[in-house]
Amino acid sequence: MQWPTLSVITPSYNQAEFIERTIASVLSQDYPRLEYLVMDGGSRDGTVAILERHAAAGKLRFVSEKDGGQSAAVNEGFRRTTGEIIGWVNSDDLYAPNALRTVGAYFAEHPEVEWLFGRCPIIDRDDRPFKAGITRYKEFWLRHYDYRWLVVENFISQPAVFFRRRLLDRVGVLETDYHLAMDYHLWLRMGRVARPAFLDEELACFRSSGDNKMSLQWRKSFQEDLEAARAIAGGSHRLWVALHRLNGVKLSTAYWLLDRFGARARQ
């Protein structure tokens, strides 16, 4: 089997607390044809020293300069890398052991597959799994993928998604007007032209530390998701976009309850 070249991009800004763990989760994969690039937005918290150490050892490349935000940083990472397969993992998330070999082997054995996703549990700032109910809910829809339901809600976890560069060239890079739903906007564009594969394996972990963008701004995230669904699928899937609005009310209530009673339980 010929392993496909695989590019991993990590956008970063002031994540010295977590980025060492993220880097380790990538480099420990032992993937034979890996290109790893960190796009740092000019961190001032010790992140750059960590990146310099790994770069000096020849383990990764990095750029550290002011950028236009996370989407712009990832797009620049797309431009600066060359791998046939692409994934991006944020600077506080983790790849699961052996994830990249699992992904690379699947793409090699299924040349017709343009993109895929896997399972992605939620972890806290100490890498402990929690919010298991949300994870199980998302996994149900991953196993029963349908583009119409993807229009209703985003059940795909970004760190556990990988895609071919040729698909990205076809649908375009991230829309920088989105700050929280840029990945969902991309999934909708990809799903419109290519059905993804689902690997029923844990590929990554999404961190909900209480201070990342999704933890603090989930209401705004749901609103951006709705805007993305309208923009991409509003013409041909109007009913499903309408259901997205109702589903957003349900999810907003569920997240509010989880935040409120979860905080009490931790007191």
Task: Describe the structure in your own words.
- With 267 residues, the protein is an alpha/beta fold.
- It has helices at residues 19-27, 47-56, 70-80, 99-109, 132-143, 147-152, 165-171, 182-193, 213-216, 218-233, 238-266, and strands at 6-12, 34-40, 61-64, 85-88, 94-95, 115-119, 122-123, 161-164, 197-202, 204-207.
- The strands form two sheets. It has a seven-stranded mixed β-sheet with strand order 3-2-1-4-8-6-9, with helices on both faces. Strands 5-10-7 form a three-stranded mixed β-sheet.
- Helix 8 runs parallel beside helix 10 and helix 10 packs antiparallel against helix 11.
Task: Give the rounded overall mean pLDDT.
Answer: 90
CATH fold name: Spore Coat Polysaccharide Biosynthesis Protein SpsA, Chain A
Number of strands: 10
Topology order in helix (H) and strand (E) letters: EHEHEHEEHEEHHEHHEEHHH
Overall number of structural domains: 1
Rg, Cα atoms, Å: 18 Å
* Main pleated-sheet profile: 7 strands, mixed
The CATH class name reads Alpha Beta
Q: Distance between the terminal alpha carbons, to the nearest Å?
A: 52 Å
Report the principal-axis shape.
globular
The structure class reads alpha/beta
Approximately how much helix is present in the residues?
A: 40-55%
* Architecture (CATH level 2) name: Alpha-Beta Complex
Strand percentage: 15-25%
Strand order of the largest sheet: 3-2-1-4-8-6-9
CATH superfamily: Spore Coat Polysaccharide Biosynthesis Protein SpsA, Chain A
**What is the count of DSSP helices, taking H or I runs of 4+ residues?**
11
